Amino acid sequence: MNPKEAYEKVFYLIEEHHRWFSSSLPLIASENITSCAVKEALISDFGHRYAEGWVGERVYAGTRYMDEVESIAMELAKHLYRVKFADVRPISGVVANLVIYTTFTSPGDVMMALPITKGGHISMGPLLGQKGNFIGGTAGAVRGLDVKYLAYRDEELNIDVDKTIERMEKYRPKLIMLGGSVILFPHPVKEISDAAKSLGAVVNYDAAHVAGLIAGGKFQDPLGEGADTMSMSTHKTLPGPQHGMVLTNDDEKFERIKKASFPGLLSNHHLNAVAALAVTLAEMLMFGREYASQVVKNAKSFAEALHDEGFNVPGEKKGFTRSHQVLLDVHEMGGGMKAEKLLEEANIIVNRNLLPWDVRRGRSFLDPGGIRMGVAEVTRLGMKEEDMKEVAKFVRMVLLDKEDPRTVAKKVVEFRKNFTRVRYVFETSDEAYKYIRLRMPS
After folding, report:
1. Whole-angstrom distance between the N-terminal and C-terminal Cα of the chain?
2. Which of 21, 62, 63, 396 is buried most, with the most CB atoms less than 10 Å from its CB?
3. Vertex 118 angle, CA 194 and 351, to 5°
4. H/E stretch holding 335
């Protein structure tokens, strides 16, 4: 393939991707779509520039306007999350977690988190050996931490507080990570934080998945419940660019966090994404409560509808979910890999996912027993509770009725024609600009 052919092929594939997703049901829980105003910030000249360091302490010239935008992003984050300090420089949620590890631990220290099989993220994983090769998460492989696991109650799909405190007293961790990659219900932040204080341990809440729900007041308030810090990515229920943040109310901890970010882990920190994040935070201040409320309603409706259609939906005794996520146990239908592929053929985009009891079944991350779905993106497209019932029917047609996925895909395409506009957003960049100017002190 010569350069011209490669150039044309890339843009052809981008166009095909856009065409496919515009006629699909995007249900991956870790994804969302941005507004046109956010996209405009992302393609600005900021993306060509450098601004290493802290606002007012840059090691590059030419940053006068980027400094002001970064300051606005920090102020909006503090207002949205009702906190004293915000570092908007981490370039992803994983880097935000690495900032926390670097700030509060040294190699060899004990950190406690959920295992990946029970909702923990790969960035919380230990260093693991597999057939002579070393694999593992950021905590073990990069930071060299001794990761011990929080106790978990499979039937509750949540942390077992009493057993976790026993483990904390045994292992004496320097850092405890709450939150995670699969989180259907609020974690017991207060109980764990109260116990951690007596051990001198820092508690961080990884809010990557639920940051938008927290901002909208529809999940839990981790810092208000006792967590010392909160890390996050900014592109899931917080519908912004792929970036990260770290928040805290603690003066001393924040000074350490700043130094861990730069010069510890970051050089340039993607100034275009910071600008896009500022627009997102303004949108969430304007529309976040309405959006978060609808996300939770949609997730609940979707889970109940899937259950009524005949699926095994974990969490029934607790109402299935209180976040944007819904789990399906498809072990008896051939597993998550098979379900994921069949649904993809029907233009229903999900991801296979480990369930807490998959290890007992002999399943691995390569072919887990579950699939994870999220409603954050389809909610942005305007879907409501009744629409989620229709989506559940499409899932039933593919996995239970065993209809030809290509036939179902045609129905999905027709259904999706009703949802073509992104909601809960500023309609123009001018509208976003005016709102931000009104929210900022002169």
Report:
1. 55
2. 63
3. 135
4. none
The token duo for 363 is 């399943």
Answer yes or no: is 49 within a domain.
yes
How far apart CA 105 and CA 143 sit, in angstroms, is 9
Examine the pLDDT at 72 and tell me if it is beyond 60: yes
Looking at the fold, whether 325 and 291 belong to one and the same domain comes out as yes
Domain CATH for 264: 3.40.640.10
Question: How many CA atoms lie within 13 Å of 372's alpha carbon, on the beta-carbon side?
Answer: 24
The number of folded domains in the chain is 2
Q: Each residue of 265-304: pLDDT tens digit? A: 999 999 999 999 999 999 999 999 999 999 999 999 999 9
Q: Which two tokens stand for residue 333?
A: 């239908």
Calpha distance 278→272 (Å, rounded):
10
Tokens 């978990």 belong to which residue?
152
CB 333: neighbour CB atoms within 10 A?
18
Share of the chain above pLDDT 90, in %: 91
pLDDT, one tens digit per residue, over 312-334 is 999 999 999 999 999 999 999 99
Q: Which residues fall within 8 angstroms of residue 393, CB to CB, at 6 or more apart?
A: 305, 309
168 three-class SS: helix
**Domain identity same for 262 and 296:** no
What CA–CA distance (Å, rounded) separates 356 from 215? Answer: 28
Question: 17 burial class (0-12, 13-18, 19+ CB within 10 angstroms)?
Answer: exposed
140 has a pLDDT exceeding 90:
no
Q: What is this structure's pTM? A: 0.95
